[in-house]
Amino acid sequence: MPYDYWFKPTKAIKTKDGIKAQSKRGAFAKSWWAQRWIAALERLVDSGRLSRGRSYARQGQVLSIDETKDGIAARVQGSRSTPYKISINMNHFTDAEWGKLIDALAEQAIFTAQLLAGEMPQDIEQAFERAKVSLFPSHRSDLQTDCSCPDYSNPCKHIAAAHYILGERFDEDPFLIFRLRGRTQEQVMQELRKRRAGSDETEDEVEETEVVIPLEEQIENFWDVRVPLEGFAVSIRPPTIEMPLLKRLGEPNFVPEPGLQSVLSSAYRVISQKAIQTAFKDITEES
Question: Is the pLDDT of residue 167 over 50?
Answer without folding.
Answer: yes
